[in-house]
User: Which sequence fits this backbone?
């Protein structure tokens, strides 16, 4: 627990692909008036930068610091969002395309890529209290977070949500195919040597398969307000 109350508050929300971390974190941040850090977007921005360098995929596992330091990756507040900037600009739609999504999970296995992004992620605190979502927010980036949350949901439900989010058809066949893709990414994220996806000790675990979005947001905001009140004797600052 972070007991220095001149310091910003930190909530971490970790979980597997499609568990709803980003939408949940965004809404929790909005309700608390804090900033939302989408750490996956930083991995995607670095992935996009390496893609633009034209380096063949086969070489990605051995990429070195000098490659990762070439692009300028930063965050800047835009309302309650922390916008991710690549060389000073919005990275554009390539950030979320299927190829970046696939390559990001390969890049995320490289410890140098992870180290490259550590400082950028922690710089979120320069702008105040933060709700950070990702895979290792509570375990590696903010180990002293005031509240750690781990979201899960069944594979089918996560596949269904991904399809809906992307505006794709949600029939049985598409769900099975998307579930297989997610299962593969889960395996990569959970078995990599550095910062594998795990529920951090002491985390509030929520299976969102059958919990409504608003109920889960309420639960997290309630737990955050309680944690902040316990530490300071007052409600968290906006
Ligand atoms: O959450 P996302 O789909 O935008 O994440 C993109 C990729 O980055 C995903 O393969 C996992 C990886 N990632 C990570 O390893 N650690 C994080 N804190 C966030 C994302």
Assistant:
């Amino acid at each position: 627990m972070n007991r220095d109350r001149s310091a910003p508050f930190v909530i971490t929300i970790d979980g597997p692909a499609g568990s709803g971390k980003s939408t949940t974190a965004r809404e929790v941040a909005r309700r608390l008036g804090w900033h939302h850090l989408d750490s996956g977007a930083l991995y995607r921005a670095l992935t996009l930068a390496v893609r633009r360098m034209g380096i063949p995929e086969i070489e990605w596992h051995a990429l070195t610091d000098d490659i990762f330091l070439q692009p300028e990756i930063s965050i800047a507040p835009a309302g309650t969002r922390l916008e991710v900037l690549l060389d000073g600009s919005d990275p554009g739609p390539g950030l979320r395309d299927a190829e970046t999504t696939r390559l990001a999970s390969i890049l995320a296995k490289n410890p140098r890529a992870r180290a490259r992004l550590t400082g950028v992620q922690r710089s979120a605190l320069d702008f105040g209290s933060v709700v950070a979502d990702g895979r290792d927010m509570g375990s590696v980036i903010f180990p002293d977070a005031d509240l750690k949350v781990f979201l899960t949901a069944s594979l089918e439900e996560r596949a269904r949500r991904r399809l809906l989010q992307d505006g794709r058809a949600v029939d049985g066949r598409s769900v099975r195919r998307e579930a297989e893709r997610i299962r593969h990414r889960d395996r990569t994220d959970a078995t990599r040597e550095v910062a594998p996806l795990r529920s951090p000790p002491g985390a509030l675990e929520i299976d969102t398969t059958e919990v409504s979005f608003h109920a889960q947001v309420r639960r997290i905001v309630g737990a955050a307000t309680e944690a902040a009140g316990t530490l300071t004797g007052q409600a968290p600052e906006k």
Q: What stands out?
A: The first helix runs from residue 21 to 32. The first strand starts at residue 10 and ends at 14. The mean pLDDT is 91. Strands lie at 10-14, 35-38, 73-78, 81-86, 130-134, 147-152, 204-207.
